[in-house]
Design the sequence.
């Protein structure tokens, strides 16, 4: 069992029901340790105001979702991504986030060249690092499930993320979300390879059978086929002692429920299923 | 461009419109080189009758879809899979298939133990090999996209398939379907590792953006983001000179069209997009 006092709410989990302000209040009310806001919700509330509310509620911030989207079809697109990522670093700093999570972007628009995407991602992170190191904001590459390779992230395995970290050096690590990596026979070897220093975040939810939608049918921990305790044990065996961030996109189920019920269920499942 | 005279029709591509008998006639009419029937359609037509029609039409059989489904929650389930796979070998022999394609099965039912699935798969193939070697029917492990790890196949990368082949020895190889493996940064290295001897089949279709369904929204070659010519070139650089098998599950598009239009489009796309 995971300690429910280390739970962090990724705001996507209740984004259809609550504003960021309500999420902050909800986290405080349910004694969550932390929150992980998405940038659109942060923008809506106002960064400074959100930062103050989060601080006043005594919450940590397990990560800011999200920077990245480095891939583009032309130089203007690459520049735009660079500028947006600089702003994301500033926002992560403003709210005291443990890291800025990077969803790196898919196959460059209009092309069939995933290898070009890999290069753009590596160059994009390298370009961010000068500033992120200077201000001390860790960048967390999140390998997404391969079903998102085309349109969201062309880094899809822990091995690839570790390879990038090897080449990019200090200031960059990995956000491990069980949903994206659970199927990989190399998972445990690559968690060991990552080690404590690189494991910047640990996200949980579950893979449902059947899964009815590529994006919006994630499961609550315990409702699917992922052996979450085994993955948590492997991550913690490396010395990771950070938060358990819960991120569930669920259009037909959890987004339809009373968010206080969702929060309560999350805490219960930490004990039974994480 | 790929030589359209080497095209094989996987019958799933027009399964909503045509019976196997109509597929055979269609392949002959459109000058396809080969066919790859699914077992349910084969059973419906009758194996011997289908074999005779395929022979009379002058068609090769690029593979039989499918054996496998080795994973189960108990000994009775494992035995049932073993018996069914023996029958699948006999059917593949009867129709003169180049190989029996194996979709290996997902996480054992009711469990969260994907590693147990991996072991059952390896044991299951090992148990088949005595008979398949004796009768000379090559077994082709098809790594499926990781989004099928839970419920269809827990072998999801070329690396894993190659590892299995290393351990299992003679008589087993790999069916490479671009849909399942296109995203993998190790793809080209693992194609080289497989080499001519292990590459038993090459399947084409495309990954659409967006993909609206996990199972039934595959694209026609050229309509998605997969660089199919690059993968074909890599496979043929190893010496593969087999057929191009087209397998498109497409509930909302290609399954709704006149199957003769589908066949014609396949041949055109061989030239422009494979």
Sequence:
């Amino acid at each position: 069992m995971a300690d429910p006092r280390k739970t962090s709410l990724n705001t996507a989990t209740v984004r259809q029901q609550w504003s960021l302000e309500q999420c902050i209040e909800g986290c405080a009310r349910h004694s969550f340790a932390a929150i992980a806001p998405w940038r659109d919700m942060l923008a809506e509330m106002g960064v400074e105001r959100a930062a103050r509310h989060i601080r006043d509620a005594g919450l940590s911030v397990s990560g800011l979702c999200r920077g990245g989207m480095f891939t583009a079809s032309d130089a203007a697109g690459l520049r735009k991504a660079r500028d947006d990522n600089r702003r994301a670093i500033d926002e992560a700093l403003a709210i005291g986030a443990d890291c800025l999570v990077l969803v790196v972007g898919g196959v460059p628009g209009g092309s069939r060249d995933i290898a070009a995407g890999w290069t753009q991602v590596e160059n994009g992170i390298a370009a961010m690092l000068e500033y992120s190191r200077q201000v001390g904001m860790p960048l967390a590459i999140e390998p997404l499930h391969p079903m998102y390779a085309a349109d969201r992230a062309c880094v899809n395995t822990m091995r690839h993320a570790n390879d990038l970290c090897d080449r990019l050096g200090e200031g960059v690590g990995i956000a491990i979300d069980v949903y994206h990596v659970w199927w990989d026979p190399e998972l445990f070897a690559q968690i060991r390879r990552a080690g404590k220093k690189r494991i910047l975040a640990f996200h949980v939810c579950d893979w449902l059978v059947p899964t009815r939608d590529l994006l919006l049918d994630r499961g609550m921990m315990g409702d699917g086929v992922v052996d979450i305790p085994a993955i948590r044990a492997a991550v913690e065996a490396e010395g990771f002692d950070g938060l358990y961030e819960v991120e569930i996109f669920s259009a037909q189920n959890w987004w339809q429920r009373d968010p206080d019920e969702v929060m309560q269920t999350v805490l219960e499942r930490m004990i039974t299923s994480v």
User: Anything to note?
Assistant: The first helix of chain B runs from residue 20 to 29. Chain B touches chain A through 33 residues (CB under 8 Å). The domain at 4-273 of chain B is CATH 3.20.20.150 (TIM Barrel).
